[in-house]
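Provenance and format

Records in this collection were gathered into a single text stream. Each protein contributes a sequence line and a token line. The two records reproduced below are adjacent in the stream.
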Amino acid sequence: MKTLAHPRDREELLHRLQGLRPDNLRRWGRMSTHQMVCHLSDAFRVALGELPASRRINLVTRTVVKWFALGPLPWPPGVPTRPEIDQVRGAGTKPAAFAADVARVEALLERFATHPNLDREPHPLFGAMSQSDWLRWGYLHVDHHLRQFSA
């Protein structure tokens, strides 16, 4: 399974991020391409403990949902997000300059992928996560949103 633990998988995502254009059309959802880039940055900042996010952890989300979410299948469209990183209806970071925002998410992806202690932060839905869980989540989250914009 692909994960940010593998340099080749990171390079794949970085290459796809570099191919994004502000006018990419979305296949689902409400975010623009630029909003999605900011959403990815916010999500990495939550995972790194730099941005607080509300939690909705329960028995189902920390077991069944987590098991499916970190499994071999790509995420389906329409999965809701936490309000703190919702760029359309919530408090997510507002887009500024597209190239700078893409560079920011690329830097965050690299920092996240090489962070030695990701397991210190709980996921807002899944709760406790191992280092490998977080690295799998990171790959899947970025891949999900790049597929949203055919990138």
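Adjacent record:
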Amino acid sequence: MTGADLHVTAAARLRADGQRYTSNRKVLVEVLSGSDRPLTIHEILDRRSEVAQSSAYRNLAVLERAGVVHRVVTHDEFARYELAEELTDHHHHHLVCSECGAVADFSMPEGFEERLDAELEKAARRAGFATEGHRLDLVGRCRNCRDARG
């Protein structure tokens, strides 16, 4: 999705939720669109310091409720945020470190992703569940944490 399309879509989702696409919300969307991984609020603020921390928390909650951003919960105390997958045109999954909370994105080959979708759909159907998509988080220890332990 192009930058202009991203902002049009974000504004439309916010309007549908009864919200405005303010300059602070636009800054948050821009920061997240320029990242290759989910970011903590502190990382977002390091990249664009003109947004107050309290404003970032409030606006990320609004953006999440409107379906513009997705919150990735990890094992540490800091949530990470990324653009909602529908706004990026990039289906991906996460590697989540259970020790430091770091999150990295990864993708699988298309053929494997299609087989995974089919198997997940079968499992959901057996449970009487209608899927809308899937998220896959692999939880373990990142290279830095493994190396630190020896």
